[in-house]
Amino acid sequence: MKKISVLGSTGSIGTQTMDVARLHPEQIQIEGLAAGSNTDLLLQQVKEFAPRKVSVATKELAERIRHELPAGTELYYGREGLIEIAAGTEADTVVTAVVGSMGLPSTLAAIDAGKTIGLANKETLVTAGHIVTARAAAKGVKLLPIDSEHSAIFQCLNGERYEDIERITLTASGGSFRDYRRDQLINVTVEDALKHPNWSMGAKITIDSATMVNKGLEVMEAHWLYHIPYDRISVLLHPESIIHSYVEFRDSSIIAQLGNPDMRVPIQYALTYPERWTSPAPRLSLAEAGKLHFSEMDFERFPCLRLAYECGKMGGTAPTVFNAANEIAVARFLGGEISFLRIEEIIEQVVERHVNISNPELGAIEEADALAREVALHL
Ligand code: NDP
Ligand code: MG
Fold first, then answer.
1. Using CA positions, which residue lies closest to atom 15 of ligand 1?
2. Which of 68, 71, 63, 102 is nearest to 86 (CA)?
3. Considering only CA atoms, which of 160, 168, 164 is closest in space to residue 219?
4. Tens digits of per-residue pLDDT, 248-259?
5. Predicted pLDDT at 198
6. Where are the domains of the chain?
7. E-assigned strands of 90-232?
8. Which residues approach ligand 1 with their CB closer than 6 A?
9. CATH for the stretch 2-145
10. Model pTM greater than 0.85?
11. CATH top-level class for 315-379?
């Protein structure tokens, strides 16, 4: 029996994780669930999966649902609640599916408690990659990727030697505006930006896909997960999202992982690794797909990707600041406060003003994160 806890159980990755659990009731037991404010859905999940512990974002929300929980379910809230679900249950695997660098303390707590991490929350690796990976290595804890590109790379590297890797290539669908020129982006709306062609995801990552920030975060995520230098990580536009990513080896062989876009596959693999279980994901027929398309990434069209590479290579607190500025800019865009193109300007300006600190401790990261948010909020 796999025992799991899910941080962000009411979100896009969270609900698909619950789908996977629902499909394998004999093999997966839910120990803990943490949600933000969608208490209706959380209560449904509690009814169905009977977790021992649950958490919500605030004390007020906790008070509102307290009397609706079954006797055996303990209730927590806030930052401490999230940490309790991450580290204080019998789970052997914790799925990190909250959005943003707010997931860092709970991810670290889960690692310290020796839990295997099913890692969806890429912002934690971007913001503090050296700390998270060192902590996981010291604890002997596995970081199993849920992000589809990183799951693909992980699968391509099964049984391979690190020194044989030549290059990693992450594929990118291009997001909601992949066929737009830059001058067509001036008046795009939040509704337009939220229409992703291939994947149905949470709002923040859907916007990140449209700005290509998501791919930038994924480049940094790949750097930390696989210890590959930035100049050996590429991004390739692939509108069909069928090749989820690939690895080239020194003998010139390329190994790729393919499938129809369905996040339940990488989520499940993170839970069952090294086993593979049956899945309801639609099977891929290459004959039906017929043609797959690829093109070079255009760094002028997608300047956030160029900036992400620069911040990644700089290291230190630069990736933290890139990520924090983006989180605020995206929230402001989603709130109707700024235009789409303003997102990249804000990130660029916050990064420009930042004085980089190399090899930062957790405290310096938290400070850089908070300051970047403050600046990004007022630009
Ligand atoms: P969603 O916005 O759909 O879900 C976010 C989750 O976090 C919700 O359950 C939300 O709860 C919860 N949450 C928000 N605030 C708090 C809080 N204060 N305490 C506890 N929980 C909170 O995001 P996604 O599922 O799309 O993304 C999650 C992560 O996975 C992100 O880092 C993203 O980059 C990554 N990812 C997502 C993919 C996808 O397909 N969606 C693909 C690859 C990576 P509530 O709704 O109850 O408020
Ligand atoms: Mg991805």
1. 36
2. 102
3. 168
4. 999 999 999 999
5. 86
6. 2-145, 150-260+282-299, 315-379
7. 93-96, 116-119, 143-145, 165-172
8. 8-14, 34-38, 57, 82, 97-99, 120-123, 147, 199, 201-202, 204-205, 263
9. 3.40.50.720
10. yes
11. mainly alpha
